[in-house]
Amino acid sequence: MRFIEWNDNFITGVHECDIQHKKIINVFNAIYDAIRLNINKRALKDSFNSLINYFDKHFTLEENLMEKYGYPELQEHREEHKKLKETIDKFMQKPEEEINYLEVLKYLKNWWVNHIITMDKKYGLFLESKIK
Ligand SMILES: [Fe+2]
Ligand SMILES: [Fe+2]
What we know:
Elements: H1 15-36, H2 41-68, H3 74-93, H4 101-131
Helix pairs in contact: 1-2, 1-4, 2-3, 3-4
Bound molecules: fe (ii) ion (2 copies).
C-alpha cells in the first residue's frame, strides 16, 4: 500500500506547481518504503535533506509566481512556508538517534496535503486566469 496517493483534488491549475506537488508525493512514498526496509539512518537523513532542498526550490517557485502576478495573500503564504522550514530545522537538528523519521514524514505529508488544499489551491484560482 502506498503511504500517500495523488488525488486530483490536489490540482491547483498551475502546471509547474502541480508537477512539483506530484513529485514530492512520490518522494514521500519512496522515503516511506525506505523506512519500512530499515535502511540506515545516515542514508535516511540524506534523503530527507534532498527532500528539504526540493521543498525550498518549490517554495521559491510559488513565491516568485505569486509576486510576479501580485497575489494579495503572498505575505501570509510566505509565512506558512517559513514556519514549516523552521519546524523541519528543529526536527533535523536533534541528534541523529533521536530523530523519529516516520513521525517527521507523517508530519510533512499532513502539512503538504493540508497546505495544498487550503493555501496552494487558493493562489491557483487567482493565477489561473492570469497565466493563461
Ligand atoms: Fe505548494
Ligand atoms: Fe505553498
